[in-house]
Amino acid sequence: MLAKQRAGHEAIQDSIEYGPELFPFKTKGILLASSRYENLDRDRVRIHFDSRNIERILDGGHNTLVIGLLILKRALDFTGGKLPRGQKT
Known about the structure:
alpha+beta; two-stranded antiparallel sheet; globular; two-stranded antiparallel ribbon; 3 helices; 89 residues
């Protein structure tokens, strides 16, 4: 099913799975505040949060949740588990 036909987190997950090159154009992404970071190999970055009162996700919490749920769903699919439904999720 196409991302534009689905609502909410399912549309974001579809965008990540089936059109990741379009994801930055469909969302504002994730904005983080951190005083320390390090550049890693393969264009990756490790972010350190030393003061969690002020260093955190500033914008994009919903995107972060949806990406985390997608990772969890894939891991559970791999192990044969199921994502719980309802308030526990």
